[in-house]
Amino acid sequence: MPAQRAGIQSVEVGFSLLQVLSASPGALMLRDLAAAAGMSAAKAHRYLVSFQRLELVTQDPGTTRYDLGPAALKLGLASLSRLDSVKLARQRLGPLMEQIGQTLALAVWGNQGPTIVHWEESPQAVTVNLRLGDVMPLLSSATGLCFSAFMAQPSAGRRHPHDRLAPLLKNELARMQKLARKDVPQTMTEVAAVLEEVRQRGLARVVDTLLPGVAGFCAPVFDADGHLVLGMVAMGSLASFDPAWDGAVARPLAAAARQLSADLGFTGA
Q1: CA 62 to CA 138: how far, in whole Å?
Q2: For residue range 217-246, what is the model confidence (pLDDT) as tens digits?
Q3: Can you say how many angstroms the Cα of residue 147 is from the centroid of all Cα atoms in its chain?
């Protein structure tokens, strides 16, 4: 057997805390975080102090809960941006923006849902309160609807199952019901109908749902195995954005996503 390379055990032990946080749906109390990582609270606290100094972890002063910090986000975004599909997509956004004149973005599936990993704002576009690393809602954003629709397909889950999609949808639906939102699906039956329409059209759209006066489309990009690898997003003010399914924004966006899918080896419809 080849000799195992020497390493720093404390780094490996401490990393288990970051792994627990990355898999958690939200911030954690010290006792729960330590227990999930298999260490004492006192030991976990020492690691967390160092992680806070490095901005890998943050602690909410009100709740005392721990969560991933800005440095962890930067590492994650850097890793995601190195994916070939993201690189290829970024190369196409410039010409596409010139064609449609709207803000464009790329999203991939992260630990908490569809996550914005690249953003290019058109000079004439409306300013939107979105940032790199933002996780998009599943029911009120075109990005979320696109991922929900195409990840739910059997072909999208054979090799890369996303078992968390269904509970995430149910949790978000419950939140929308508490807020009495009438501009999103009200039941899981309605959710299923909306997602089926997205699959039939090959494109997701929202108008005046995510942000007032703003419309958006998201087109899916698939790899050679038929898995959804990213969403190409277009967003803009209704004053200048064409929200028609076959309009000046939807057609070029969908065509660019289809071409990128083909370049990645996808041969499906």
Answers
A1: 28
A2: 999 999 888 889 999 999 988 888 999 999
A3: 8
